[in-house]
Amino acid sequence: MKLRIPIQFYVFLTGITFCLLLFGLGEKLSFLTYSFGRIFSWTPGDVFDGSLNNWFLENNLQYFLRGGNILDFNQLFNSNFYWPEKNVLAMSDNWILITPIYGLLRLTLSPNFAFTGIIVLSLTANLMACFHLCRHATENKFYRLLASFLSAFSLTLLARIGHAQLMPAFAGVLAIDSFINATDIKKLSTKVIDRKSSLLNEKEIVISLAGFTNGFIWLLLQIFMGFYQGVFFIVASGCFMVVLILNRFAFKNTKFKVKKLNLIGKFSKYYLSLKISFFIFLIFLNGSLYWQYFIFTKDKAARSWGEVSTQIPKFWSIWFNNLSTPGNVSFPAPVQNINFDTYTGPFWEHSMFPGYTFMVLLFLGIWFGLKGSINKKNNNRKWKIMTLSNTALLMLFVSIGFGGANPILTVWLIFWKFIPGFSAIRAVSRIGIPIVFILSPLLAWTLSEMHNRLNKNAMFITLSLLFMLYLAGNVTKDIKRFDSTDYSSIKDNAINKIETIVKEKNCKIFYMRSPDTKDWMFDRAYPQLLAMWASVKLGIPTSSGYSGNNPSQGWNHMMNENQYKKWLSKMGVDSKDIADTCWINGDDII
Fold it and tell me: What is the 3-state secondary structure (H, E, C) of 484-551?
């Protein structure tokens, strides 16, 4: 019997191979040089945020290995940095759901390589999820793969590769897939209808409750996986519901019909009970988890509108990407000149341009949609594609702002003000990632429409031109990554020095003052992260730390010994516990 290999296996290999080319082979800014053969030797991102997200995973793993209760979020979130500050894990994404996968990789890999493996698997899973979503667009597997690749590895995503917490988005894509799979539009049967009746042209939008339940389960998994992408896919799901409701008014004589649950046999009943139980369990987990974030927002001020508004997407954001510049690609993004005198915000966060090949197929798809599909037999497929495309368009509409650095008109202001948790989202322009994922079926449908309209030679020439456009506009040399082997050596050396001092002084807690190199970002993050890694190795807390927020009572990364002890007193630590702490001079470590 011939072994049949699932198509998703080839999609998996495609994702792994492209990740290998991104940060698996070669010296940075070159290709296949002295480091050829050091598979995945480069860690995605910069040495600051990349190392921080790696630390979160390692710290979670060590907490579980020490016998920590997986459901005791109070204890887990009182992580061993910024001691004695409480609930410090709520300052960033927590990575809890991904930790078991990281733990499996750690059986054979170092922390750095296991972290790179997590990013590689996340990016590949995104590709596979988009490929699965594209089945609603066409049966042609090559066009599905091509469209998924353009979305899952678009410049929109690669510009955020340094923010590893944004990379796992596959559960959100599968949530949208479940929602669209649970809906169909069809004409009402005319067998019992008089031909003169107005019901002759009536349509039904059939909704499967079982399918929607699957969608909400995937959505809850995405929220549990990462706060940022969880919020964005909540917006995506809400936009999908709105678009579905608007279909009721867009088509004449259209009504909704709910498909009844099929509970024939014991297996169906048991499966439904299991699904509902899992759904309730996920609600409990998400509620317990984000209770920690709620406590944090009560104690700490939410992101101010002045901070959020500079990162609201603008119209020019769609055409800008900091990876697509004259120094990085042959064919740079349309928007290059940003007036930094009038726009003072972090312009790099506005990198929403996905690449020219993506945009060409997008606009061709819009034109085909307006003109009408050449395949008249499957209007349900076109309806699903238009529903997903309108969902992405509505997501852009509710997030975009008009009016300079501080937009005077944006729907997101309503979300920020009235929806709990949305005020914690700072870089709203990152919503571009789920938007390009949801648009992947439109690209696949466009390619299929081109295939139906062009002869074989014309289609080959068109695909060749699109490929050349991709090479000129998407192959960029400035994707952030750092050498994991070099960093691991530096980290181990620093940990050994800190361990020696801690054992000599018999410390139960320590704080390391950062050296003053006159590079504020380096001094703020790099030494403090080394102290955090030493804390994990030694199994004792540290008052050092680096995260999205700082502790209260005036903590900073360059306190001298007296300032450190005064800060501990302000935090309510008694003199006996202060005596058990160690102040370490970072100049002796680095």
Answer: HHHHHHHHHHHHHHHHHHHHHHCCCEEEEECCCCCCHHHHHHHHHHHHHHHHHHHCCCECCCCCCCCC
Longest dimension (CA), the chain: 95
What pLDDT, in 10s, does the model give residues 237-254? Answer: 999 999 998 887 766 666
H or E element in which residue 96 lies = none
Task: Compute the distance between CA of residue 312 and CA of residue 453 in angstroms, rounded to an integer.
Answer: 39
Decide if 109 contacts 152 (C-beta within 8 A): no
8-state DSSP, 409: B
Please check whether residue 183 is in contact with residue 207, taking contact to mean a CB–CB distance below 8 angstroms. Answer: yes
Question: How far is Cα 261 from Cα 150, in angstroms, rounded to an integer?
Answer: 37
pLDDT, tens digit (0-9, with 9 covering 90-100), for 107-141: 999 999 899 999 999 999 999 999 999 999 999 99
- Give the pLDDT confidence of 480-522 residue by residue, as tens digits: 888 888 888 999 999 999 999 999 999 999 999 999 998 888 9
Bin 140: left if φ > 0, else alpha if -120 < ψ < 50, else beta: beta
Show the tokens assigned to 123: 């990016």
Contact by Cβ (8 Å): 11, 143: no
Alpha helices in 300-331, H assignment, sequence order: 305-309
- Nearest CA among 315, 325, 320, 328 for reference residue 347: 320
Q: Which residues, listed in sequence order, are joined to residue 206 by a DSSP beta bridge?
A: 184, 257
This prediction has a pTM of 0.92
| Closest-CA residue to 169 (of 115, 222, 117) | 222
Contact of 384 with 180, CB cutoff 8 Å? yes
SS3 330: coil
Q: How far is CA 17 from CA 25, 381, 387, 444, 500, in A?
A: 11, 31, 32, 21, 42
Residue 15 and residue 46: Cα distance in Å, rounded?
22
Dihedral angle of Cα 139, 144, 147, 149, to the nearest 10 degrees: 180
Q: What number of other Cβ atoms are within 10 A of residue 515's Cβ? A: 17
Q: How far apart are the first and last CA of the chain?
A: 62
d(CA 281, CA 195): 51
**What does residue 204 show for φ and ψ, rounded to 5 degrees?**
-120, 135
d(CA 570, CA 563): 10
Cβ atoms 50, 528 nearer than 8 A: no
d(CA 79, CA 536): 10
What are the E-state strand segments in 225-310? 254-259
Taking a C-beta distance cutoff of 8 angstroms, is the pair 290, 421 a contact? yes
| Residue 533 to residue 490: CA distance in whole angstroms | 11
- Coil, helix or strand for 208? strand
Pairing outcome for strands 581-585 and 254-259 = unpaired
Element housing 205 (H / E): strand 203-208
Give dist(CA 279, CA 299) in Å, integer: 30
